[in-house]
Predict the structure of Peroxiredoxin-like family protein.
Amino acid sequence: MTHSAISAGSPFPSLLVKDLDGASVDLSTISDDADWKMVVVYRGKHCPLCTKYLNLLETFKEKIMANGVEIVAVSADSKAQLEMHLADLEISFPIYYGLTVEQMKALGLYISNPRSEKETDHLFAEPGLFVINEKGQVQVIDISNGPLARPEIGILAGGLEFIKAPENDYPIRGTYS
């Protein structure tokens, strides 16, 4: 098996997913309320670690958004699965559904088969996190092949504050090829 990840500094691709109203949303578009965007890809409703991570992310939302970074989350779940998942989520940031296998591959995410029909009924992405800067470039990437390895949110929130401080003039890292 080969794996290729999206490159640091490359443009974040235009990826259309659905919101709870069924409207298409482009993950690459940054809202008018922010100049950067954090896209959190989670495994889906079946993953209790994802639920815990998204709920923890909510506790850092104000700190992250105070630095001009909007937060969104997305999975390959269906609308029905997302609606059921909302009962366990305590989040106020946008959450989307319908990430396709082709979109997962475009982001360089690891993709898994469900272990059984009790887990879920579709292929799903393993966790990924992308921070898009004001130029639409991928500033920060974290991709995991399983639910146990994810960025520590407190460190991430503080790191984004440091990166965005103009006096630090912090470049995109990991671009040497």
Summary: The longest helix spans residues 48-59. The chain has a mean pLDDT of 95.
